[in-house]
Write a structure and sequence with these properties.
The protein has 2 helices and no strands. By secondary structure, the chain is mainly α.
Length: 59
């Protein structure tokens, strides 16, 4: 494929995605925000535990 065909194919695929995409409603947005916040909190707790164990072991 040359660059013109590749660009044309990319534009067609992008248009298709934009037709299907929609803005989330309020409830869906807050559900997504809750899940994201929970994930960040879990990663933070795991990091805290790792640092705490490291300090207890004197590393």
């Amino acid at each position: 494929m040359n660059i013109k065909e590749t660009t044309s194919d990319f534009i067609k695929q992008s248009k298709r995605v934009l037709k299907v995409a929609r803005k989330p409603d309020r409830e869906e947005f807050f559900d997504f925000a809750k899940v994201t916040a929970l994930g960040i909190a879990i990663i933070g707790v795991i990091g805290f535990i790792i640092v705490l164990i490291g300090q207890l072991l004197g590393l």
